[in-house]
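Check this:
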Amino acid sequence: EHLVWWNCLLDNVVPPPEKWRNKDRDWLSSRQIELQTGRQKSSMMQRLHLRPVLQASESVMLVVPEQADGAEVVPSLLLGDLEAAFGPRYRDFNFHLNQEDDLKRLAKWFSLADHCHLTARPSGRPKPQLRITSPRLIRHSEYETPTNLDTLFYYPHRWFFRQKLKIYPGSLLSISRDETLQGNLSHRFFEHLLLQPDVTQFSRDAVREWIDAHAETLFPREGATLLLYGREPDRLAFLNKVKNAAWSLISMLRNNGWEVLHTEYKLEGTFVNVPVRGKADLILARGDERAIIDLKWSGLNRRKELIINGEDLQLVLYAHLLPPPEQWPHTAYFILKEGKMVARNALAFKEAIVAGNMSDHGAACEAILSRMQTTYRWRQAQFANGQLEVRNSRTALELEHLYEGHLFDLLEMKNEDDRWDEYRILLDR
């Protein structure tokens, strides 16, 4: 009987590209399946716009704001139809809430609220530490992962909220953005390609043919959005990057005498008496030498900075877990999007981009691992004392003063917000 349409605005959405080809329509039509045409869809939308007026039996209220989502709006085309249908009488039931005369007319039917000013509530000074009232009740983790440890070292509140309090972000049905999708797909290509017998002897044409053949089954299963109408240029560009990266990596393996030992290799061990589990993208062998390669879709400059700053913690932890324990394997990042290797030195790959100086890789890993272990013990001591650090750009300076003189043997702490902090909204409470 009564209908209220909030945000009665023009649905100015560009229609998606037509996904049916003429031969698809003809094939379906031959089997008595008739698809809607563009004209039929447009006609249906026009009828849907009229439904509120045609179906409400007593009253219809159409509410049109001046702005929505921070931008000026265009009213629904329904209002133009109503104005044309009623002519001068349209003014009788059209009200502007910021005009005094209209408010008086509207008061005949509605009790309207008065305007009032709301006082701003300051959020207060952010706390650099939260108090854990019963730290003895914190359960020990069954195991840790390199990603979890990285979060614990630099942003312990994220680690605590997720691992201990089990506060997880809402699970939404969503499609991965292109960068994430392409990263996952490229990993899948490399995972299977590098397991092929004698892959280091593949020619460039053989690499291209293998990727084209496997794309026919991989895209429908794991990259369907790249098969949509209009995405062909994106799909071809992505495949070309994968082909170039694959040939670049295989050439580096052959030129430097490496053989593929494992892909997606599970690593297990202990770190300061805590069980740790991880999965290395690529394990290589050259005689008694070993190398661990972390495949990344993008981020060449960021990986260089991690190595230069001694923050390639995940690679160092993988190297620590890979047997034999008395030998440090080589480590490197391979950037798929650019087909380039980034490493601490060029001893494993002469083509690698060297980040920093030609330092002794084993000594560098020993120093980083020692700092990781010291930082882990320090964090655990904080938890035992009921202290949970909240680190972001607003608390970093206060934390530096709080810890003054006690950070020399630790990993260098961050002074900026964590870009992946899903708990940021909770920190001002």
User: Anything to note?
Assistant: The mean pLDDT is 89. The chain is about 40% helix and 15% strand. The first strand starts at residue 2 and ends at 5.
